[in-house]
Amino acid sequence: MEELDTKTLRKYDSDYLWHPFTQMSEWEGAENLVITRGEGSYIIDSEGNRYLDGVAAIWTNVHGHCRREINEAIKEQVDRLEHSTLLGLTNDRAALLAKRLVDIAPPALCKVFYSDNGSTAVEIGVKMAFQYQNQTGHPEKTKFISFTNAYHGDTVGSMSVGGIDIYHEVYAPLLFPTIKAPSPYCYRCTLTEDRDCTRCGMLCLKELERLMEQHAHELAGLVIEPAVQGAGGMIVHPEGFLKRVRELCDRFDVLMIADEVAVGFGRTGAMFACGKAAITPDIMALSKGISAGYLPLAATLTTRKVYDAFIGSYAELKTFFHGHTFTGNPIACAAALASLDLFESDKLLEALVPKIAYLKERLQKLAGLPHVGDVRQEGMIGGIELVVDKETRQPYHWEERVGVRVCLEARKHGLFLRPLGNIIVIFPPLAISLNELALLMDGIEASIRAVTE
């Protein structure tokens, strides 16, 4: 393949590409990074500069970039079969991966429906829940309850169960109405010295219980990001919150749809956040880390109870009429299988324990900085909230773009970061070494100080 210089690559990008979540008037013509290689925890640009990937290729990378074992599995699969439809056929990689996913999933999740990204995985779950209610004698159960600050993707159905105005408000006329419960985090308590997340969680649960009791007769399902609301600001659930939500869903006969797209595959320190909380959702959406960040792949897992509601004669039209061209793509499934092998051979979950402890220690230190209003952590996920004033925790105005400025400053320290507003996100590859994690946290601290002090 022709090697092009950085200037030409930037011009082609500026002339022909439209980037996600990007104001292109600011992007075009800028000296943006052009990434051409990856190596372990680093991405490398067209000029040979190395950047520690602090966001794991947007929350997907597990074992590092260009891991030999996954590379070889993909190459081997390409020589065997590149793609085969699951419409009227199956393939060996898709079947084997489905079995492996069921083996590691929370108990009772026993059926796997493939797609290709997190948004579609959630949308499949919503459609399953809707059709399940219709086919089990509850056609009146058509609505969904979800949470403020939630993010479940950018297709119309997943946006409908989302709750972040900056992403979703412009599309409001396209979306179906949902019932919104309060986010399991109360920003009011950060204005006091006696912040008590457990108390806030209980207040949110009381309101959720009231809403579910009021609307139980029309609720098909509840959609939740277990443990952490990601794009909403790395908002960590209080301990026990997820278990209580499961109990409320059981009590009011509402299907629980867990969106583990961001938190699945080891990110919380356990394989799945629902498993860590010792609960089983009725439907669980997976993507991002499923293929270790290599290829588009997603899976929606469900129980025998839900699956059986779709079983009947052809004439009954109980079939789940949903599908994707690349459903169960064997190359993507081969990457996922190789990733699961590495979880075992590298003892990855056990190796996370000291890294999670170190991240906690460094975040607690950062909490003392004069413009850090809050730090949050769940496993290998961290969030640092930047504020104008520590005493009042007054946020920076979004137009000041303090989070963006910190992330640009971090490039001087050899880091690539991407913020959520004024939240600095810490989401590195799980295989990052302790020394690399120290480098990441040193660079983040120096960048916050340089921009805010």
Can you offer a commentary on this structure?
By secondary structure, the protein is an alpha/beta fold. The chain has 16 helices and 17 strands. The chain has helices at residues 6-16, 24-27, 56-59, 68-80, 92-104, 118-135, 156-160, 165-168, 197-215, 241-251, 273-276, 304-308, 330-345, 348-366, 402-410, 434-452; strands at residues 35-39, 42-45, 50-53, 109-115, 143-147, 179-181, 219-224, 228-229, 235-236, 255-259, 283-286, 298-303, 372-378, 381-389, 394-395, 415-416, 423-426. A 7-stranded mixed sheet has the order 4-12-11-10-7-5-6, with helices on both faces. Helix 11 links the parallel strand 10 (255-259) and strand 11 (283-286). Mean pLDDT is 95; it is low at 186-194.
Strand order of the largest sheet: 4-12-11-10-7-5-6
The CATH class of the largest domain turns out to be Alpha Beta
Unreliable parts: 186-194
Please state the average pLDDT score.
95
Could you tell me the CATH topology label of the largest domain. Aspartate Aminotransferase, domain 2
What is the terminal separation in angstroms? 47 Å
The CATH fourth-level homologous superfamily of the largest domain:
Type I PLP-dependent aspartate aminotransferase-like (Major domain)
Q: Give a short account of the largest sheet.
A: 7 strands, mixed
Q: Percentage of helical residues?
A: 25-40%
